[in-house]
Amino acid sequence: MQTNFIFSIVILILSIALHEASHGYAANRLGDPTARLAGRLTLNPLKHLDLFGSVIIPFLTFITGGFIFGWAKPVPYNPYNLTDQRWGEAKVAFAGPASNLLLALIFGLAIRSGLVSTALLTPVSLIVFVNILLAIFNLIPIPPLDGSKILFSLLPLKYLSFRVFLERYSLILIIILIFFLWRLLFPIISFIFFLVTGIPL
After folding, report:
1. Cα 82 to Cα 27: distance, rounded to the nearest angstrom
2. Of 9, 15, 20, 22, which one is the catalytic site residue?
3. Where do the H-state alpha helices sit in the chain?
4. How far apart are CA 116 and CA 130, in angstroms?
5. Model's pTM, two decimal places?
6. What is the pLDDT of residues 8-53, one digit of tens each?
7. 20 catalytic per annotation
8. Do residues 141 and 94 lie in contact, with contact meaning Cβ atoms separated by under 8 Å?
């Protein structure tokens, strides 16, 4: 159990570092240097770690639910600097989950094609699982998750009150989602895992 926990934490930290760095790279390519100037265009996890989201929450979710979940410090960016003012925020937001899905796809296809030995099947499968989990969770449209920025880019101005509601109660909604609605996400994650790897979760 201790070995699985430590290995899971390592995979999670590296995966969220990739996730956050991808936000920064996307913003930088779209004309905003904020993340680059802050030293966040790096895969060095120490630059992205958050005590609560990267240590405390993963520990709590593991001992209470048997799974690992967490997040890192958000990469800073200035949406007013983006060259694409219409879809720039959505593109920056989607870059994080997209990087996790790409990583899951690479390792998943390695499993499906038989390139992964039996000895490495469990750790590689864990890489796929954690990255699918991060991607799907972050695409949920609750602030400050990436899905909310994508949703807000799509919503007409007349739904501004709905955005205000989500932002006001976001912390409560996130806590409910993490600890009580996990079972609703698991079938989606399990299906994508099987689709990518060819093996049941």
Report:
1. 7
2. 20
3. 2-29, 34-37, 51, 57-65, 88-112, 118-138, 146-154, 160-168, 170-180, 182-197
4. 17
5. 0.89
6. 888 888 999 999 999 999 999 999 999 999 999 999 988 988 878 7
7. yes
8. no
